[in-house]
Specification:
single chain; 8 strands; Rossmann fold; 2 domains
Length: about 200
């Protein structure tokens, strides 16, 4: 962000990170909300401006209201999770999802799914990760039985490390993975969960 006279120049990621929009804002003040957007290291750049953020008390007559609150009990909210275990149609049936939940529980992780899985109601839509779903940026993302379509990759490309488990060695996801396991997820995932629980 740069300040020129009274105009703010802002860069914003669009189209799932494929482009950068350069916006100009004429305002004396504005509020920006950046989930997980600030790191502990702040780099100084030419023409940049330091801003101190203070709490703003909202009076009882403020013009705002809460429209809806969704609580998803028993799970870690995807945008806040540092570890996410996702799965796709390779699970073959919704009844098989227990092995994914066991792995996630052993890692204190959130669970996610690909769009086709939520479309056929194997998993709730709030777990759908991808271009038209939730964008995540965990430290670790484990993808089980997900081929790696571009729409799904757009939702997980902010992950620190990606581990792919798939029995198809030609699955596109392997090209984007930091680590890959070629094998039957119904064999690999329970064994991985067992090792983690014994650690």
């Amino acid at each position: 962000m740069e300040l020129t006279d009274t105009t703010y120049s802002i860069q914003k990621s669009i189209f799932s990170g494929k482009a950068i929009a350069h916006l100009k804002l004429n305002a004396s003040k504005f509020i920006g909300i950046f989930p997980k957007g600030f790191s502990s290291e702040i780099k100084s750049e030419p023409n940049s401006m330091e801003i101190s953020f203070d709490s703003i008390p909202l009076g009882s007559k403020a013009d705002y209201q809460v429209g809806e609150i969704e609580n998803h009990e028993g799970s870690i909210p995807l945008p806040e999770a540092s570890i996410v275990v996702g799965a796709g149609r390779g699970m073959k049936d919704a009844s098989n999802w227990g092995i994914i939940e066991d792995l996630a529980q052993s890692l204190h992780a959130a669970t996610a799914c690909s769009k086709p899985v939520s479309d056929i109601n194997w998993r709730p839509h709030h777990e759908h990760v991808g271009q038209t779903g939730i964008k995540i940026a965990p430290k670790l993302y484990i993808a089980c039985g997900i081929s790696g379509a571009i729409q799904h990759l757009a939702g997980v490309n902010g992950s620190g490390k990606i581990v792919v488990i798939n029995q198809d060695p030609e699955a596109p996801f392997f090209k984007h993975a930091d680590y890959g396991i070629v094998g039957d997820l119904f064999d690999v995932v329970p064994r991985l969960t067992k090792i983690i629980k014994e650690m």
